[in-house]
Design goal:
Strand order of the largest sheet: 1-3-2-4-5
CATH topology of the largest domain: Alpha-D-Glucose-1,6-Bisphosphate, Chain A, domain 3
Number of strands: 19
Number of helices: 18
Oligomer: single chain
Helix content: 40-55%
CATH architecture of the largest domain: 3-Layer(aba) Sandwich
Length: 553
């Protein structure tokens, strides 16, 4: 379509008819790391506008496919949301996040039409390529998701673009399919080579099987993992994965809290967010569960846990533990490869970058800084910032403590891994196993299981690799969170000027003390984080700093 404001007015008139009769109120939403999220009844127009935006993004990006996912991840069943995916498979570009917020905030049809027309002109969007443009569409298991997905379809088709319906998929599946579609499609092809959810499952099953076979001959029996799927779409993907595994891996994973359980509610007393925050086993966990993996509602996050045999308490393995284990493992592979290159007269430099935020535990950082080939880098809080920094390394890895993260392998590194060396063969397979587009709870689970198998490290030994420093998070309600400004990746306060000296004085009172203050990115509050040598000290430090925040803000 090539018309101006009048034609876009007609489009929005038709879209309004699609959502007629739906109980909806106009809301202004912020596009955060998890996309737009709100109670489901508030989202029809939000979803339709995001769908139009991703169709336009496809047109602007040379008709490469983009993605749209209907999900609210770990939020309650009554909520829903929408995530937008770039043609690279990564999260939405920051400029287009701003555009999405402005578009969603428009109230009248005429304002929407004018806004879209100005976007087309400002971004030089090739609307004549509408017939070639396509959006991959997926949704989760929420009751509201199919209806919202239907509205997204109508919106995409209303601007002349194609919809590729992936149906029930995890968020990482959608990201994978977008990336694989665009990397598989060559300029001379008449149509894109569409990647489907089966391709994702097949890639995981194949690479996981090959890696386990490489480590199996000298290893003992495999541990059975009970996988809590939070009554979400992760159960659909896990069942499909298990069905593709060979007989020798049958029973490696036992899925519970699946999406069709009539007694279960999505994310209620289950899932990664619940296990991590409440530090307890999810409802439905078997009594004999010695190795728990917990996904969140759309399977982009993972935490692991086991019972302490002495007191039966839950021992949690979160994102910081993942980084310590995997950095240690890949450091060892890099050492093998470096020795091989030295022996064969090849001079190459390789490096592993572990990207952390201010929230990463200080004890984990101390361990990482002692590893060969490992460099610790800092980024602002938020996956999009972590990902951007991780892409700068040969092997870049990031994990938030909540269990969202991945390992990224550079194309230049993989191109240098052509020799028939065992460590290089493993590295090539890991690059296929790990989702190169986004954090993926299922792929991360398979990665960790292979590493544990290959190193013969059990959960207890892994848990003993380091002792996290006790930490405390507090939220302080203030009149204006923007009164606080920070630098050094949120670790230092620059305004109010007298606040940081107060924080420094408080930290100095406690052994292994560390703390920072930052305005929330999503709420009108200030967040306080504190670490110290004991839980009592961490609590006291956090409360003391919170009092200073209240006094100065």
């Amino acid at each position: 379509m090539e018309g101006g404001v009048d034609e876009w007015m007609h489009v929005y008139g038709e879209l309004e008819k699609q959502s007629a009769g739906i109980d909806e109120h106009h809301v202004a939403l912020r596009y955060g790391t998890g996309g737009f999220r709100a109670p489901a009844h508030l989202l029809p127009r939000v979803v339709m506008r995001c769908a139009v935006l991703m169709a336009l993004r496809s047109m602007q990006d040379g008709a490469r496919v983009t993605g749209l996912m209907i999900t609210a991840s770990h939020n309650p069943e009554c909520d829903n949301g929408v995530k937008m995916v770039e043609s690279s498979g990564h999260m939405l570009d920051g400029r287009w996040e701003v555009s999405a917020e402005a578009f969603v905030a428009c109230r009248e049809e005429h304002a929407c039409a004018k806004w879209v027309q100005s976007l087309i002109e400002g971004e030089r969007i090739q609307v004549y390529r509408a017939r070639d443009a396509a959006v991959l569409l997926g949704f989760d298991t929420r009751r509201s998701s199919p209806d919202l997905a239907f509205l997204a379809e109508r919106a995409i088709e209303s601007v002349g673009a194609k919809v590729v319906r992936l149906g029930l998929v995890t968020t990482p599946q959608l990201h994978f399919c977008v990336r694989r579609t665009n990397t598989s499609t060559k300029p001379w092809m008449a149509a894109p080579v569409i990647c489907r959810s089966d391709d994702y499952v097949g890639e995981l099953a194949s690479s996981f099987t090959q890696l386990t076979r490489l480590s199996a001959p000298a290893r003992g029996p495999r541990v059975q993992v009970h996988v809590d799927c939070a009554h979400g779409v992760g159960a659909v993907a896990m069942r499909a994965l298990c069905a593709k595994l060979p007989d020798e891996l049958a029973g490696a994973f036992v899925v519970f809290n699946h999406e069709s359980d009539p007694h279960g509610v999505l994310n209620e007393r289950c899932g990664a967010d619940y296990v991590q925050k409440q530090r307890c086993f999810p409802d439905g966990a078997p009594q004999n569960c010695s190795h728990l993996a917990s996904l969140d509602g759309d399977a982009d996050r993972l935490v692991l846990a086991f019972k302490d045999p002495q007191n039966m308490d839950l021992c949690l393995l979160d994102g910081d533990f993942f980084v310590v284990l995997l950095a240690h493992y890949f450091s060892g592979l890099m050492k093998e490869i470096d020795l091989y290159w030295s022996a064969t007269g090849q001079r190459r430099s390789i490096g592993i970058g572990v990207v952390q935020t201010a929230y990463s535990n200080g004890a984990a950082k101390e361990i990482l800084m002692k590893l060969d080939f490992v460099q610790v880098a800092m980024a602002h809080t938020g996956v999009k910032y972590l990902e951007k920094e991780a892409l700068k390394f040969d092997i870049g890895m990031y994990w938030e403590p909540n269990g969202h993260g991945t390992v990224l392998f550079s194309e230049s590194l993989l191109a240098s891994m052509s020799d028939a060396h065992p460590a290089m063969e493993r590295l090539r397979l890991y690059s296929r196993l790990v989702n190169q587009a986004v954090g993926d709870g299922i792929a991360d689970l398979l990665l960790i299981q292979v590493v544990l198998q290959d190193t013969q490290i059990g959960l207890h030994d892994w848990y003993a690799m380091y002792t996290p420093r006790p930490s405390k998070n507090l939220v302080v309600k203030v009149k204006d969170k923007n009164a606080i400004e920070t630098c050094d990746f949120d670790r230092r306060v620059t305004r109010p000027e007298r606040l940081q000296p107060c924080v420094d004085q408080a930290i100095a009172k406690y052994p292994n003390g560390r703390a920072f203050v930052r305005p929330s990115g999503t709420e009108d509050v200030v967040r306080v984080y504190a670490e110290a040598h004991s839980w009592e000290s961490a609590n006291s430090l956090a409360e003391e700093i919170a009092a200073h925040v209240g006094a100065w803000c």
